Amino acid sequence: MPESNEKLNSQVLESATNGTELKLAEATDFDWDQAGFITEGTLAKDIEVAFGEPLTKENRYTASPALFVFLKDGKVIKAVRIIPDAFFGADAKKKYGRDVVLTPPEGKKGFLNWRE
Known about the structure:
The protein is of the alpha+beta class and 116 residues long. It is 18% helix and 28% strand. It has two helices and eight strands. Strands 1-5-4-3-6 form a five-stranded mixed β-sheet, with helices on one face. A three-stranded antiparallel β-sheet has the order 2-7-8. The chain is globular and about 35 Å long.
């Protein structure tokens, strides 16, 4: 189920590189009401607990540094591989609403926090 989305990936990279905020809803061109992410190495069973599906045929997710998971009405509708390794594990495996903003930590470039 994981797929590529060059537009989203590019916007995440630009935000992390420049240390700017990115409103996730504005960076996507499909309908969703919750989103979250997992990091590379996350166990399939932990992904299933967090999002309702394992999203990988392997024991662990290893296809990219991050996987953005989008849900609509409680069901996974899209899982997008994200190449920039810019996310903190503490923000992972949680669901955020459409108002989530990827925000750089104060004065830092290269990393993004998920904040509502």
